[in-house]
Amino acid sequence: MEKIIYRNRKNTNSYKWDKISAKYKDGELIAAWVADMDFATAKCVRESMKKISDFGAFGYAYAGDDYYNNFIKWEKTHFNHEIKREWIRFSTGVVAAINWVVQAFTSEGDAIIIQTPVYHQFAESVTSNNRKLVCNELVNKNGNYSIDMADFESKIVDNNVKLFILCSPHNPVGRVWKKEELSAMMYVCKKYNVLVISDEIHHDFVYGENKHIPTMNITNYNNLIMMTSSTKTFNLAALENSIIIIKDKALRDKYDSKTANIHESSGNIMGYVAAAAAFGYGNEWLEQVKNIIYSNYLYMKKTLTKKYPKLVISPLEGTYLAWADFGAYLKPTQISDFFENKCGIIFNYGESFGKNSKTFVRINLATSKKNIKEICDRISKKL
Ligand SMILES: Cc1ncc(COP(=O)(O)O)c(C=O)c1O
Question: 39 pairs with which residues across the strands?
Fold first, then answer.
């Protein structure tokens, strides 16, 4: 079985480890914020990149057949999702593509709905493009999240919403949406002709009985753009290779004509080669990484809730990000100071995901057990 290699990424220009390390002494900081992993990617990916690197000639190139074929096979095998090659488009990132869609398919002042708390770049893509942000707040019952469908529909109607940015599975609350939930949302979007972006970048991280259902698979509503990538799954974010899937020909044509002047229709050779290898041969590596992540989650939940029974850590149905409410122990104003200055730990703070999450933190579990233990120890000593 392939060994999962933990990497100490300090001093490697890692955004997560090095961007905000200046105020810490050597070895003091534990970075558990940005959603990437501290594991070396799968051996098959490293070897495919090495081959290209050794070849050394990096003239203009395009995605090979294996890139498309392996991705299509992956989606079919893992999600029973039939994708045709001509539906696939390239983007340097899901966030970039979300912004392209916001700019291409909506106008200034148009309303866009998101489900807070949610990945902060969703709100950013709305407000930075001068669109109107509409939030359908998820319902939190002791860490278990669900959708307020009545609120979702009335906000769409009242604000004449043009676009819905769905996060499936959901970062940061860890939900893997069920068929009924996805169907209900798509039913409403269809009723009011709301364009849907289905951001499924976390779809490979689903645990236990939970099953990821591609939004496209549960609806005949084709006003829908799916986004995903190998980068979250295989720790390849710096290679900037994301995949956009548009089934509907008219929507695809519109997307193509609107994005043509960005001149970003293809990526770099390393990204293509890495993604092709990952989707083709990376499954065994992924299964092991998922085991590590889930075991980190169980360890953290058990250790911290034993000592702090009023701490609420949401069920981890999907993603590799734990969502924890420290509200019983820390005031909103204490959160960042406590973790950053007293514990030397960086998490993402709840308030960046939505206004009602000020006592929450998002904890990145894709690291070594040693780091997870150290995080728990430091919290336990200081809280
Ligand atoms: C829901 C979601 N979408 C998109 C991204 C970023 O995607 P990309 O690096 O392809 O822009 C992230 C990263 O954390 C994410 O959680």
Answer: 6
The CATH code of the domain that includes 352 is: 3.90.1150.10
294-350 pLDDT, tens digit per residue, is 999 999 999 999 999 999 999 999 999 999 999 999 999 999 999 999 999 999 999
Give me the residues paired with residue 144 across strands.
141
Which residue matches tokens 């039939």? Answer: 82
For ligand 1, whether the C-beta of 167 sits within 6 Å is yes
**CB 113 near ligand 1, within 6 Å:** no
Number of domains in the chain: 2
pLDDT digits (tens, 9 = 90+) for 206-226: 999 999 999 999 999 999 999
**What's the CA angle centered on 360, arms 358 and 362, to 5 degrees?**
130
Question: For 162-201, how does the pLDDT look when each residue is reduced to its tens digit (9 = 90+)?
Answer: 999 999 999 999 999 999 999 999 999 999 999 999 999 9
CA of 247 relative to ligand 1 center, distance in Å: 22
The pLDDT-based confidence of 102 (bands split at 50, 70, 90) is very high
- The separation between CA 93 and the C-alpha centre of its own chain, rounded to angstroms, equals 11
Say yes or no: CB of residue 93 within 6 Å of ligand 1.
yes
Q: Do 272 and 135 fall within a single domain?
A: yes
- Best residue for ligand 1 mutational test, from 101, 232, 320, 321 (most atoms within 8 Å of Cβ): 232
Nearest residue to 91 (alpha-carbon basis) of 171, 216, 9, 201: 201
Same domain as 164, residue 30: no
State whether the beta carbon of 229 lies less than 6 angstroms from ligand 1: yes
Are residues 182 and 323 located together in one domain of the fold?
no
Q: Is 242 in the pocket of ligand 1 (CB under 6 A)?
A: yes
Atom of ligand 1 nearest to the CA of 34: 14
Please give the residue range of the domain that contains residue 276: 47-281
Do residues 81 and 219 both lie within one domain? Answer: yes
